[in-house]
Amino acid sequence: MYDGAVQDLIDELGHLPGIGPKSAQRIAFHLLSTDPTDVRRLADAIITVKEKVRFCATCGNVAESEQCRICADPRRAEDLLCVVEEPKDVVVIERTREFRGRYHVLGGAIDPMNGVGPDDLRIRELLTRLGDGKVEEVIIATDPNIEGEATATYLTRMLVPLGVTVSRLASGLPVGGDLEYADEVTLGRAFEGRRTVS
Amino acid sequence: MYDGAVQDLIDELGHLPGIGPKSAQRIAFHLLSTDPTDVRRLADAIITVKEKVRFCATCGNVAESEQCRICADPRRAEDLLCVVEEPKDVVVIERTREFRGRYHVLGGAIDPMNGVGPDDLRIRELLTRLGDGKVEEVIIATDPNIEGEATATYLTRMLVPLGVTVSRLASGLPVGGDLEYADEVTLGRAFEGRRTVS
């Protein structure tokens, strides 16, 4: 529809997740009327991220050297390991400042519909990490959806025989939420996981 | 939150229109796990668009040389000029294959709330173009919203004294639409612009 370079850019932007043809067009025209140095900074950031950032050899989190910030930190407890799906989950958990252990990033969840099996995740690396017996508890913090639950069940079955404590994050009502708007499954889980307070 | 390069990319992506922090993060992680040649192609497309694409000296449309494809085409009628807000409007009108004239792209619409006045649009260039008397009809095809209507009114007032025919695109019910869901203003316009069929 457009002349060469504009259409090329719209096509490339359209490959990004969550960017449809209309958004791609909007972003392309935004870039056309943006200051060249700002546009250059975006292009550089894209190139730099591919050059500099890799995945931590130990846990699979994003890192700018062999090991990520957390794995390289000697103050983090070695006996507590939290298993998550993606690097962004690490950020979310770090933000709570509640967790003092280390992470293991699977790189996704078991999802047969999209052709993701256990071998596509960093499960073998997890078992290797557990080999030295330092880890005492593995907290499985996969997403509370079908794929996350399937992954958690699979991992639990693999880890329990190794003699390690396996735990899962609590399911229940979100703090600040409203009972009226809770779905049945969440409410069911909240009953199941109820705590005695007196 | 993230290490240097990832956070830089998220920040840069967050400056794009319609990209919030969550989308920026999603796109950044998508790029991290994308093949480097594909990522390079996106960065190159961004750089190329700024190097190659400029705005047509005559009409203000996007162009890869001094004049855009349409202004350079001798088969396009010189007596018919369609005034639009943005280059994307040219594409939309071209898609109808109904219009055989030329375009003038204003580069926006009068919008005092966002500090856009008549001097920020390519109105002076429009008057210069009309100077040689070749254009007989100016079709104002600004958006049918408050800013577009204000721009159309302003242009009409400037163009009528020049002795040129000024027209506006018809307002009315969208084809394939449903009378029940038409808003009052559109329905009012449809009555106003009704045509005798017998």
Automatic annotation (TrEMBL), chains A, B:
PROSITE patterns xrefs: TOPRIM
Zinc finger residue extent: C4-type: 56-71
CDD domains: TOPRIM_recR
SUPFAM superfamilies: Recombination protein RecR (SSF111304)
Keywords: DNA damage, DNA recombination, DNA repair, Metal-binding, Zinc, Zinc-finger
Family: Belongs to the RecR family.
Name of the protein: Recombination protein RecR
The species this protein was found in: Demequina sediminis
Designated gene of the protein: recR
